Structures are given as C-alpha cells and as structure tokens.
C-alpha cells in the first residue's frame, strides 16, 4: 500500500507513462493524417464523444466505488482479525493460565492467512512460529488457515480439560476463535468472488475505445495541439480505469494491495511481547510502499 505522497505520485506517474506515450503517438498520427494528408473523414462531430465521455465517467465511478468497497471491506476484516488475535493472546494468558505455544500459533495465523490469500507457499514466518508437528498438520491441509484455527482450538480444549477450567471461560475463548473464522470467511469470499465482468472488462474496453476516438473529435478544433489536450484527457480516463482494476484485487502482491505483511507482523509482535519472546522488528515502508 502506498503510504508516502511523493513516492506515491512517482509510482502513479510511472504507471501512467506507457499509456500516455501510446496515446500521444496515436494523436500525432491523427493530426498528421488530417493536417498534412487532408484525410477529412477523420474529423468527427464532438457531441457523440462528449456524451460517451460523460457516460464513461459515470460508469468508471460506479466501478471504482465497487472496487474500493472490496478493498475497504478487506481492510476492515483484517482489523477485526487483529483485534481478535490480541484478545486471544490476552485470554490465553489470563484465563487459560499460560500456554505460550498457543500464543505463538496465533502469531503465525496471520502469516498463514496472507500466504493463503495470495496463493503463496509457506513463508519463513510460519516455520519460525509453528511447532514442527503443528506445521506439518497445517500445511497438509488445503485450507491452511482454517486448519491452524482448528489446531489452536484443540489446544484450548486440552488445556481446559487438563486444568479443569470453567466451561464459561472455554466459551469465551471459543467465541474469539469463531470471530476470527468469520473474518477469514469474509476475506475468502472477497478473494474467490471477483467483480462481475460487466464491472471489470467493459470499463477497460470502453476506456480504450474512448481514447481512440477522442482525437478524431478534437483535431478540427485543436489542430496541431491535439496531442496535448487529447492525450491528457485520455490519460486521466486510463488512470481512473487502472485505479479501479488495482483496487478490486486487494490481496494481490502489488503496491496498491492491502499491507498484509505489515499487519501480520504487527499482530505477531503484539502476541509475542507479553509472553517474553523477542519479537521481530516492525516492517518499514520501502520507497513509500508498505508491504
């Protein structure tokens, strides 16, 4: 996630540069054909393209709102997981009477979850925090994050039975695990349910078509400065389309995605410090991007 404005502007400019170059070259082609070779058929009325631009702007706004809602819901669910993981660590220490292995397993949970959401193999954080036996059980299952919650739940049950802890305490801890599982289900729903094609493909196609037609309606009025006006307007529409496509996938490994590594490290530090373990350092931003 971009967290630094100057670096963020530089990233956005680098992303916008290729379409800007292509649009400018196309605009020059249109101007040369019209002004030098007198291809008068290239002059098109401006009213249709104006109406198309207005409709496209509304369409892009609707799609971008839907994409941002997906991104923000993902961030909200990660916030819920953060709070519930902290609550579990506190309850494990105060109500279950210790069990640092359960705190470490819960510290590994966000790392397991982010790897699952990104379709990545087990990372070093998982291996570092999980006991070898639990690691093998977790990563022998297709849904690794769910299996880890299951193993943590079994550990809680064993502790309750071993120490004769009151059932109400067990219920309190189990509700925390259920809340974490509910948040995980919401994240999996976002990952496995992409935006409909009408919201993802049509705006992209319409934006490209609009940028192709735009200089044809401006060349008569703007003449040789058509590349300046047309390419800037086209680039703005391209950037609007690109921002929506970036936000609609909040878990992919990109500068626009949620900073899942940072959030997972924050949870890990919050759980390891109370049990006396030395936590790893916080994740710093790199070139204005929080991973």
From TrEMBL:
InterPro entries: YneE/VCCN1/2-like
Domain of life: Bacteria
Transmembrane domains' residue ranges: 20-38, 44-62
Keyword Iron-sulfur attributed: no
GO molecular function ontology, one term from the record: chloride channel activity
Pfam families: Bestrophin_2
Keyword terms of this UniProt record: Cell membrane, Ion transport, Membrane, Transmembrane, Transmembrane helix, Transport
GO cellular component assignments: plasma membrane
Localization: Cell membrane
Membrane topology summary: Multi-pass membrane protein
Main location: membrane
Protein family per UniProt: Belongs to the anion channel-forming bestrophin (TC 1.A.46) family.
PANTHER family: UPF0187 PROTEIN YNEE, VOLTAGE-DEPENDENT ANION CHANNEL-FORMING PROTEIN YNEE
Designated name of the protein: Membrane protein
Organism: Gluconobacter kanchanaburiensis NBRC 103587
Lineage of source species: Bacteria, Pseudomonadati, Pseudomonadota, Alphaproteobacteria, Acetobacterales
């Amino acid at each position: 996630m971009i967290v630094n404005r100057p670096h963020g502007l530089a990233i956005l400019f680098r992303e916008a540069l290729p379409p800007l170059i292509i649009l400018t070259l196309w605009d020059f082609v249109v101007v040369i054909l019209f002004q030098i070779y007198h291809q008068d058929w290239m002059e098109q009325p401006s009213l249709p393209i104006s109406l198309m631009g207005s409709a496209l702007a509304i369409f892009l706004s609707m799609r971008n709102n839907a994409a941002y809602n997906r991104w923000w819901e993902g961030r909200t669910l990660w916030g819920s997981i953060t709070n519930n993981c902290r609550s579990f660590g506190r309850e494990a220490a105060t109500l279950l009477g210790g069990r640092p292995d359960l705190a470490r397993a819960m510290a590994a949970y966000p790392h397991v979850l982010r790897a699952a959401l990104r379709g990545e193999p087990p990372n070093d954080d998982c291996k570092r925090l999980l006991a070898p036996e639990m690691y093998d059980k977790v990563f022998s299952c297709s849904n690794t994050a769910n299996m880890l919650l299951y193993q943590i739940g079994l550990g809680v049950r064993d502790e309750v039975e071993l120490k004769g802890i009151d059932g109400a305490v067990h219920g309190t801890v189990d509700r925390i695990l259920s809340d974490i599982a509910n948040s995980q289900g919401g994240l999996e729903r976002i990952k496995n349910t992409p935006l409909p094609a009408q919201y993802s493909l049509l705006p992209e196609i319409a934006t490209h078509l609009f940028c192709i037609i735009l200089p044809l309606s401006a060349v008569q009025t703007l003449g040789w400065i058509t590349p300046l006006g047309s390419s800037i307007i086209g680039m703005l529409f391209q950037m609007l389309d690109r921002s929506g496509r970036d936000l609609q996938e909040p878990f992919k490994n990109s500068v626009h995605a949620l900073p899942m590594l940072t959030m997972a490290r924050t949870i890990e530090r919050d759980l390891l410090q109370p049990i006396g373990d030395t936590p790893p350092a916080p994740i710093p931003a790199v070139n204005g991007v929080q991973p």
